[in-house]
Amino acid sequence: MSNTNKSKVYRLTGLGILTAIIVVLQVLTTYFPTKPFAITLALIPIVIGAAIFGPKAGAYLGAVFSVVVIAMCIFGADVGGAMVWNANPFLCVVVCLLKGTAAGFVSGLVYTALAKKNEIAGAACAAVLSPIVNTGIFALGMIFLFRPVLEAWAGGSDILVYALTGLMGVNFLVELGVNIVLVPVVVQILKAVKKNIA
Fold it and tell me: What pLDDT, on the 0 to 100 scale, is given for residue 1?
């Protein structure tokens, strides 16, 4: 088998494994008792894939995550997501696809740019930016496209304060914290992968 074919097989296998991990993690975390939205733990495999295979692969893995989120909204497994879906299915799909795909793509871009000088800095920045992009796009989507839903959840309180504290607060902090804590693991995985493909 030529090096080109080995590289393609390696890429397809790696992306297949990461795809499966993302699907399983996102489905499982949907059933954690967090309101109104499930905590996302699927961002780390997205960051790993983006770092190993590049920004386009990160975008693909982010899109996979988004499709699972949309499915959970449709089937009502994610209560908050189901409310957003019921309010406007098309815009729900747009926001979900945009936030996940962008989180993966940005992770890949940042890692690629920074890892040349410092792999740890590249992995850390990619891991930190992934939940920031994911949650930031989601929050903007809720504020500008789903304002009535947000107002209903806020129960009369200021929707911007509610979006930052109630809607995103705990989930975002947990997602960011998990990504930060797992940066050393990500770095070790990347070193092992690079060693094996060198």
Answer: 63
- Could you tell me how far CA 128 lies from the centroid of its own chain? 11
Residue 42 half-sphere exposure, CB side, CA atoms within 13 Å?
31
State what percent of residues in the chain have pLDDT above 90: 56
pLDDT one-digit tens code per residue, 13-41: 999 999 999 999 998 887 775 656 667 88
pLDDT tens for 108-133 read 999 999 999 999 999 999 999 999 99
Residue among 87, 90, 100, 64 nearest 153 (CA):
87
Distance, in Å, from the CA atom of 37 to the CA atom of 73, rounded to the nearest integer, reads 10
And the tokens for 28?
Answer: 């499982």
- Residues 175, 164, 102, 96, CA torsion sign: positive
Residue corresponding to tokens 């920074």:
114
Q: What angle do CA 86, 93, 77 make, to 5 degrees?
A: 55
pTM, full prediction? 0.91
Instruction: Describe the crossing of helices 43-53 and 55-74 by its angle, rounded to 10 degrees.
Output: 150
For the chain, the first-to-last Cα distance in angstroms comes to 16
Q: What number of residues does the chain have?
A: 198
